[in-house]
Write the structure tokens for this entry.
Amino acid sequence: MNILELRGISKIYGQLSALSEIDLDVAQGEWLAIMGPSGSGKTTVMNIIGCLDKPSCGSVVLDGQELSALSADELTAIRRDKIGLIFQQFHLISYLTALENVMVAQYYHSLVDEKEALAALDRVGLADRAKHLPRQLSGGEQQRVCIARALINYPSIILADEPTGNLDEANERVVMDILHQLHREGSTIVVVTHAPEVAAHAERTVVLEYGKIARIVLGGDPSKAPEVGEACGAGA
Amino acid sequence: MFWKMLNGALVRRKGKLVMIAFAVGLGVSLATAMLNVMFDVGDKVNQELKTYGANLTVVPRGASLMDELYSLEGDSAEPPRAEKYIAEADLHKIKMIFWAYNIVDFAPYLETAVKGGGQEISLVGTWFNKHLELPTGDEVDAGMNGLKTWWDIRGQGGDDADETGVLVGEALALRLGLGPGDSFPIESLDGQVGATVKIRGVFHSGGVEDEQIFAPLKLSQDLSGRPGLVQKVEVSALTTPENDLARRAAQDPGSLSRMEWDTWYCTAYISSIAYQIEEIIPGTRVKPVLQVAESEGAILEKTQLLMLLLTVLAMACSALAISNLVTANVMERSAEIGLLKALGATNSAISILMLTEILITAFIGGALGYFAGLGFAQLIGHGVFDSAVEVKGLVIPLTVVLVFLVTALGSLPAVRMLLRLRPTEVLHGR
Ligand SMILES: Nc1ncnc2c1ncn2[C@@H]1O[C@H](COP(=O)(O)OP(=O)(O)OP(=O)(O)O)[C@@H](O)[C@H]1O
Ligand SMILES: [Mg+2]
């Protein structure tokens, strides 16, 4: 069953076509990587999937729901309920503790539950850092708080834009381990990355070029693996 | 969670909010000072106009200036000099001038220092409600009771029939720890004459009188050794508004032509009434005081307007500063705001959070500013008006409303920015 279906998605900024005619399906529980050179439209796709932005044309079906007809407020509600977001710059609130940062997501979702938030921090190995402010945490630890926050509301799909872009190798490994664990537990994960070794963890990699799907690669590294589809009309 | 976030923002970002609090505080301190002074000045003007509800003062000729300049000098140290006083026996003549029926009321005063309750106290002898039988056969009542109508008296009013019954000023009563019905001994400074007086009432006048005792004239004459004498008389008269003729006459009645002089004399100008009193009680000088109070009133009214203007300006400056600071605050936190939106916070939820934070900051700044402003007000009061400025409760709700308005107005641009902020533009490091 597909949790996400993109059909003929285009995004046009004035003259510039950031995305054109993207078709993409993501299966329930799949781990998908999106790669491509800078400016190829990776973040744009993520924003559309994450209900942060609307496509200029095309349809998005998330968890069985068609999104293109929805208003901004309705999109906010869907994002709140179904999407867990992880960012390259972490975006933790500087004046709240790790625990409170996780609880903010609960607050805007439904109800605050400190025990549950603490459990989420425990899952990413930061239970003992719950009372620390972001500036008292290392980059890797901050990203783990960010992951705890992303998974606190049991999202249908976790979206990570360059989650390891600001981390060193050791921390990258820790973060990828957590994503693997989530994947094993059944989470659907979409990761945007520049780094082939990060993409290598995915089951499938979509390569974007000039706003189009250049190719789709099964498994890890797209530079080594054989191409399995042509750009246009490629699907899973 | 709302409070947790608010608390976090307020406590852990206080460095950034201090400037906002400061901007509000500065504006509020100015506004508080100006409003307090303004209201107080208003009261002072009213009081002055009422005080000179007695609009003529009769003083002994030659003493008119001296008396004012050296009024603090111990009277009992020097032997009474006849030319510095007016004979009590002459006073009824005030009711016998051409414009007698325009004389509403009048009261004599004789001030002397006495010892009482272990300290030196100023005692003023006066008529409270003196019954006079005029040689013309008319009978009138005159005295302070009809002049100081705005005095707020606790207990009974003054009565000339009660020879040892006195009124005590509020401040003095407080200092002596006495109230209506209490009796206490007083004596002249040299200890020669003494009396036990009974407090009929405690009054609030809002002026220096609050530190004084008002007693029947006879008592102060006995205590000061000046039988049958008074220092000055306040007269309340109904008068015709001044015109050019009256002003010329006031400067020098001799400069008028015969016809003009007749017209002037037979019109109830304050200057002609003054002239007639001087005529009938030789050796006196009669000063019209209403004009002074009126022009003073006009100046004070303008001062009040100026202060109101300053208040408005101060608040406008505050609003501008706040607007800049709050906008900078939102800009600095755009990523955080984008994140909250991405996490599903609605525009209104974020706006309320930010506004609450700014308002709390503003009110903390405002509270500090208020107290600083009270200090300013006293400085202004002592520097400009030479008296303490009474703290007006009304200023508190006014400043609260001002802070609220100014902060809300000042935050508008920032809120607009916040509403338009799109998470996609701030979350991906563009
Ligand atoms: N708000 C916008 N207005 C105008 N053009 C935009 C906007 N957002 C993105 N673009 C353009 O769309 C194209 C795709 O941008 P996008 O951010 O998706 O690239 P990306 O693949 O994520 O690049 P990077 O790897 O550098 O993050 C770029 O050429 C970018 O300049
Ligand atoms: Mg990008």
Helices of chain A lie at 42-49, 72-82, 98-109, 114-123, 139-151, 169-184, 196-199. Chain A touches chain B at residues 43, 47, 50, 52-53, 73, 76-77, 79-81, 85, 87-89, 91, 93-97, 100, 103-109, 112, 133, 149, 161 (CB under 8 Å). The pocket of adenosine-5'-triphosphate (ligand 1) is lined by residues A 13, 16, 18, 36, 38-44 (CB under 6 Å).
